[in-house]
User: Fold this.
Amino acid sequence: MKKPFIFILALFLSGAVHAGGFDLNGLDLSGIKAAAADMPAPAVSAPKAVRSKIKKEPVREWTAMFFLNGKSDDIGARKGILDYLGTIGDLDDVNIVVEWGFKEVKRYKVANETLVDVTPAGISNDMGDYRSVTEFINWSKTNFPAKHYLFMLTGHGLGWMDPAKEEGGKAISFDTQAGSYISTPDLAKMFRDAGGVDVFVTDACLMQMAEVVYELKDSVPVVVASEQVVIFFPALPPDYASVLKDMDSGGLSAEAVGREFVGIFDDYQKVIEQAQTYSAVRTSRLPDLASKLRVFSQSVKAANDTAAVNKALDGVLRFFSTKHDDSAKDYSSYGDLYNFIELLSASTSDANVKAAGQEALAALRGVIIKSFGRGKDGNGDDFANAHGLTIELTRKVPGFSPHIATQYPDIPFARDSGWADFVKWTDSVRAAAKNKM
Assistant:
């Protein structure tokens, strides 16, 4: 892996940008609109670009599409990526196309270290509508055809959870101007209607969940995302150019591209010294994981070793809490799947649970292409225990329920793996333990 390319730019916002400010305890459409109304207008200048009529390009090896939603409170990081992409020189066999939104939505292609404005008439101004993303992907495929496609989606994320709103929930790509965001079920529709892509990369927080990536198993072979809240500094984007240049050299498979993205995010965290985890997953192996988790969860329930279950729930590496001011993450339900199975298997004497746990861990290793966990968070939790995929877990403290639109038993992975029933059972185990205290 190349040394990180540090791109320092005098930008408009300072400090880290992340999704940690969202509180799901009461978050709904009115709250999103209120947040937008209170959001100060950042001093963002229009990108320097030249206008050109679009001309259909010849078929290249890759087309890399960047969907940069700047219509939220993390606009600085999005604008930093846009300006960074505009410095990349011509690549012989990789098209780079961008959709960028702030006050209005524009589309650019990158050529000769220049952002070339190729915005078509009539495009949607709502970057929180999955149909806008689908249209962008289809438009890119038509005008910038390639053998392989990479798609990057930026903005806030909350994993599988969809904050409640009047007309259905949304989980990623918050558009605070339109009051919209894309739901977990809509992710599947988004890529299906676009004919799929080879690699999906997102810097949105908390999106590398079994429940999320399972939605994409039929349309996206490789997904690169984080289990954790993602922190970027607006003036210091990750080294996307090195991956794009390696893609241009030819011969990189989708999985190789996924590995390289994980590598540059690892390099980035070494530079900014923030606790982080990122992984690339192989979605074709997710049905096997779901099957093995069903057997594991049934074995755990049959053994009824509640002490082992509670010990694993207490010790598992957890991430962002959806409850405000919960630094201890007592109310977090984002848990590292591998770490949870390891802890539970080590804590029980039941042979069936141990055997099923080993089968589930082997299936999970087949899903993970590459991952890293680095540093400790403010709670002292060691991210070396992160293995690349989170899952919904019973909270350490029961009784908190965020306001969400999509209910967990309705998530395909939760249903197919039996995990929704398992979480319902562990909820009861946890509640019984707390009642005894």
Remarks:
- Confidence is low (pLDDT under 50) at residues 1-44, 166-170.
- The first strand starts at residue 49 and ends at 51.
- Residues 29-284 form a domain with the Rossmann fold fold (CATH 3.40.50.11970).
- Residues 298 and 422 are 8 Å apart (CA to CA).
